[in-house]
Design brief:
Strand order of the largest sheet: 4-3-2-5-6-9-7
CATH architecture of the largest domain: 3-Layer(aba) Sandwich
Shape: elongated
Structural class: alpha/beta
Strand content: 15-25%
CATH topology of the largest domain: Rossmann fold
Distance between the termini: 51 Å
Number of strands: 9
Radius of gyration: 21 Å
């Protein structure tokens, strides 16, 4: 693992969800999964003490590091001050215009060991338009299971629909809790999320699907016909729901978790 500059030791901050990856084999495995090479740009979220950065720097044309922690950002700036291809941005990733930090966001690969407590906000920020080329993230194993889940499983929900409707998602490999210091209470996993290029949905479809997905999984124990008629964000007339469902040939007595993303999209286009 890369060390901080001499004389500086950093204690992990629970408030920032810091757990540092110290297993060098897993560090290399994650960087290999990113698959970046000469001429490419990579943005790393939360580089921390530089565990992945050490393996990335020198292999790509442009490496952007976005680090919120004051001390870690200063250490990274000092360590890479003579590396023209490395830019350290001391900022909150959720408040940073990420496309503006690179030359071509649509060709940029994103990697990060992101804090568990803000995984979903970061993920959906990355999936806002415009989208990067590829995203490799280490997340809590439970979240990874939810991201790649198929309809009908207990882990399937709004997160799976939100990701899979705009990207391909795959579980790459597990990461045991012992690979970190301090040791977290849960295991992790690395996932790859590759945005659809070109996008398969237009902006209006994405908006409709988000609205329906949010309502449906807020009331996930209810039948879809009840959600369409009675959820305060929808409130469709009963006769409209019944007539359109007959045209579609869709059984709306089913619950939301039985509808794959394409099925929910069909409903969103019909009713919203």
């Amino acid at each position: 693992m890369a060390r901080a500059p001499e004389g500086r030791r950093h204690r992990a901050k629970r408030s920032l969800g810091q757990n540092f990856l110290v297993d060098p084999n897993l560090q290399r495995k994650i960087v290999e999964a990113v698959g970046a090479g000469p001429g490419e740009e990579v943005l790393e979220i939360g580089p921390g003490q530089g565990a992945l950065t050490t393996h990335l720097q020198g292999t790509v044309d442009h490496l952007v590091l976005v680090e919120l922690d004051d001390d870690l950002a200063d250490d990274l700036k000092a360590r890479y001050r003579d590396r023209a291809e490395v830019d350290v941005i001391h900022a909150d990733v959720l408040e940073t215009e990420l496309p503006a930090t690179v030359r071509d966001w649509s060709a940029t690969r994103v990697v990060g060991n992101i804090p568990y407590n803000i995984t979903t906000p970061i993920l959906f920020r990355l999936l806002e338009r415009p989208r990067p080329r590829d995203i490799v993230l280490m997340v809590q194993r439970e979240v990874a299971d939810r991201i790649v889940s198929e309809a009908g499983r207990g882990t399937y929900g709004a997160l799976a629909v939100g990701v899979q409707s705009v990207a391909d998602a795959a579980m790459l490999f597990p990461v045991p809790r012992g690979a970190f210091r301090p040791v977290p209470r849960v295991d992790s996993a690395v996932v790859r999320i590759t945005p659809h290029t070109p996008p398969r949905l237009d902006v209006e479809d994405e908006g409709r699907l988000r609205l329906l997905t949010r309502a449906a999984f807020q009331w996930r124990r209810k039948q879809m016909q009840k959600i369409l008629r009675s959820h305060p964000d929808l409130g469709l007339p009963r006769e409209v729901v019944e007539a359109e469902s007959r045209k579609l040939g869709v059984d709306l007595t089913r619950r939301p978790e039985t509808f794959a993303p394409d099925g929910l999209l069909q409903l969103a286009r019909t009713f919203l």
